[in-house]
Design goal:
The chain has about 250 residues and is of the alpha/beta class. Helix content is about 40%, strand content about 15%. The protein has one domain (about 10-240): NAD(P)-binding Rossmann-like Domain (Rossmann fold, 3-Layer(aba) Sandwich). The chain has helices at about 20-30, 65-80, 105-130, 155-175, 200-210, 220-230; strands spanning about 10-15, 35-40, 55-60, 85, 135-140, 180-185, 240-245. The structure holds nicotinamide-adenine-dinucleotide.
Length: about 250
C-alpha cells in the first residue's frame, strides 16, 4: 500500500459529490490535506468525518461567477492552493449524439461543464498556486473515449474531453517554469453514478470481461492515479495523459 503525506497542503476538487471526485477528496483528506470540494450534489456522507479540513460548496460549475467566487474564497481562506483536481463532468446518454443531428444547446452545455469550467477553475486557482511559492499540480479528468471514433457518437463529450487534454498540455507548458504541473487522467469503464446504465449483474460481468485486466475500474483506482500525479512522486511528470483503463486502450 502506497501512502502519501499531503499534510499542510490545500486541494480543490470538483465533482466531489460523484463517484471519482468523492474518492479523490476522501483520499486527499485521509492523506492529511485540506480540501475544498465542489459539486452540484450535496456532500457525500463519507466525507463527514474529515469536516475539520473540508469545505464543501454546492453550486453549478457552468456558472463562471460561482467558480471565480468559490475558488477565490478557498484560496484566501487557506493562503493559497497547492492542487486542483478537475473531476466534474457530464455524459448525457441520448441527448449527446452526432454533431450532424444533435441539439447544439446540448453541445454548448456539455462544453460549459466539461471544458470551460476546468479552464476557469485553472484560471482562478493558478494565482493562488503562485502565492504558495512551492509550485503546484493539477489533474484533469478526460476519458479514453477521446482516442477513438465511436459508431454510437457522443460528440460533445468526446470533443470536450479531447479539448481538456489539449488544455492540460498547454497549461503544463505555460506553467512548467514556475513548478506548476498539469496532467490528464483518461479513465476507462468505471463504476460510478455516471454509468448507472450498468444496472444488473449480467451487464457488469460483460463490461468487466471486456477489459484486459478482467474487471471494471473503481473510483479508488482513479483516486490512486490522481494522488500519484498530484504528489511529489510525480514531480518530473507534466503535460501527459495517463490512461487508467485496465488495458482497454490496447483493444480499441
Ligand atoms: N465513470 C466512467 O466510466 C468514466 C469514464 C471516463 C471518464 N469519466 C470522467 O470522470 C469524471 C468523473 O466521473 P464519475 O464517473 O465520477 O461521474 P459522476 O457522475 O459520479 O460524477 C461527476 C460529478 O460531477 C458533478 N457535476 C456535473 N455537472 C456539474 C456542474 N455543472 N456543476 C457542479 N458539479 C457538476 C456531478 O454532480 C457529479 O457528482 C467525469 O469527468 C467523467 O466524464 C468517467
Amino acid at each position: 500500500m502506497i501512502t502519501y503525506d499531503f499534510t499542510g497542503r490545500h486541494a480543490v476538487v470538483t465533482g466531489a459529490g460523484g463517484g471519482m471526485g468523492e474518492a479523490i477528496a476522501r483520499s486527499l483528506l485521509e492523506a492529511g490535506a485540506a480540501v475544498t470540494a465542489i459539486d452540484l450534489k450535496p456532500q457525500p456522507e463519507s466525507l463527514a468525518r474529515h469536516e475539520g479540513r473540508l469545505t464543501y460548496y454546492t453550486g453549478d460549475l457552468a456558472d463562471p461567477a460561482f467558480i471565480s467566487d468559490t475558488i477565490t474564497r478557498a484560496g484566501e481562506a487557506h493562503g493559497g492552493i497547492d492542487y486542483l483536481a478537475n473531476v466534474a463532468g457530464v455524459l448525457w446518454f441520448g441527448r449527446d449524439r452526432s454533431v450532424l443531428e444533435m441539439d447544439m444547446a446540448v453541445w454548448d452545455q456539455v462544453f460549459a461543464i466539461n471544458l470551460t469550467a476546468p479552464a476557469l477553475t485553472a484560471r482562478a486557482a493558478v494565482p493562488f498556486m503562485r502565492k504558495t511559492g512551492r509550485g503546484g499540480a493539477m489533474v484533469h479528468f478526460s476519458t479514453i473515449q477521446w482516442y477513438r471514433g465511436d459508431p454510437n457518437p457522443q460528440d460533445a463529450y468526446q470533443a470536450s474531453k479531447a479539448g481538456l487534454c489539449a488544455l492540460s498540455k498547454s497549461l503544463a507548458m505555460q506553467l512548467a517554469a514556475e513548478g506548476i504541473r498539469s496532467n490528464a487522467i483518461c479513465p476507462g469503464m468505471t463504476v460510478t453514478p455516471l454509468q448507472a446504465r450498468w444496472d444488473n449483474d449480467e451487464t457488469l460481468a460483460a463490461v468487466a470481461a471486456y477489459a484486459p485486466l478482467g474487471r471494471i475500474g473503481t473510483p479508488q483506482d482513479m483516486a490512486n492515479a490522481a494522488l500519484f500525479l498530484l504528489s511529489d512522486a510525480a514531480g518530473y511528470i507534466t503535460g501527459t495523459e495517463l490512461p487508467v483503463d485496465g488495458g482497454l486502450l490496447m483493444r480499441m
